[in-house]
């Protein structure tokens, strides 16, 4: 975005997810990169269990 072009203000911290989504649907993050800051997140990944039935638990329809 050219330096002389005015930007719309980013959504306020109390904006709803819908308001934030509507804003970013029509705006480009690269135009607001100077307003971003680094953050940290923690993710606790749990392995998925196998939800399939074993052969001996299948229903015999014969």
List keywords for this structure.
62 residues; little secondary structure; 1 helix; 15% helix; 0% strand
Distance between the termini: 69 Å
Q: If you compute it from the alpha carbons, what radius of gyration comes out, rounded to the nearest whole angstrom?
A: 24 Å
Roughly what fraction of the amino acids lie in strands? under 5%
> How many DSSP E strands?
0
Contiguous helical run count? 1
Poorly predicted regions: none
Order of helices and strands: H
* Class inferred from helices and paired strands: little secondary structure
Which quaternary structure do these chains form?
single chain
Main sheet overview: none
Question: Can you tell me the overall shape?
Answer: elongated
**Averaged pLDDT:** 84
Share of residues in helices: 10-25%
SSE blueprint and pairings:
Blueprint: H1 17-25
In summary, what is this structure?
The chain is mostly loops and 62 residues long. The chain has one helix spanning 17-25.
Describe the structure.
It is a single chain. By secondary structure, the chain is low in regular secondary structure. It contains one helix and no strands. The mean pLDDT is 84.
């Amino acid at each position: 975005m050219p330096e002389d072009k005015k930007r719309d203000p980013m959504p306020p911290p109390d904006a709803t997810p819908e308001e934030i989504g509507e804003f970013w649907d029509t705006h480009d993050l690269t135009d607001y990169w100077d307003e971003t800051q680094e953050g940290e997140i923690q993710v606790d990944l749990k392995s998925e269990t196998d939800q399939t039935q074993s052969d001996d638990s299948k229903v015999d329809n014969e």
